[in-house]
Description:
Blueprint: E1 7-9, E2 16-20, E3 34-38, E4 42-48, H1 63-80, E5 88-95, H2 100-111, E6 122-127, E7 138-145
Parallel strand pairs: 5-6
Antiparallel strand pairs: 1-2, 2-3, 4-7, 5-7
Amino acid sequence: xxxxxxxxxxxxxxxxxxxxxxxxxxPTPGYHHITVVEAGRxxxxxxxxxxxxxxxxxxxxxxxxxxxxxxxxxxxxxxxVGAQPQHVVRSVIYVRSADTGVLATAWQRLTDxxxxxxxxxxxxxxxxxxxxxxxxxxxxxxxxxxxx
Length: 148
């Protein structure tokens, strides 16, 4: 097994979270192939969209602005359950594009954002044809091992 196979004990978390990259699988750009959680409580966040508090789409057609809004929304949702980005154990990122350059830009912006630690775990990045709101380019779905 390569680096990243260590057990990670998070402050304030009774769960033991282990992230693994088996040596016979391809290297990853920062995420881990496997996340094992020994936890009692889990939260499943609904897909976080680039909507402001009033429900209006932010940055229609502008990926970077939308990612920044999604990151802010994720922080708010995590805070509501007493969690932080490092408590995320699974992420799925939806980007309205089939262009690998656009997908890479989205991945980089998310991993460089305030919620970047959320994407060091088991992650999936998908290019999709359409999302729920006109002009929406990104949505992030997270699973969280809650601290006690």
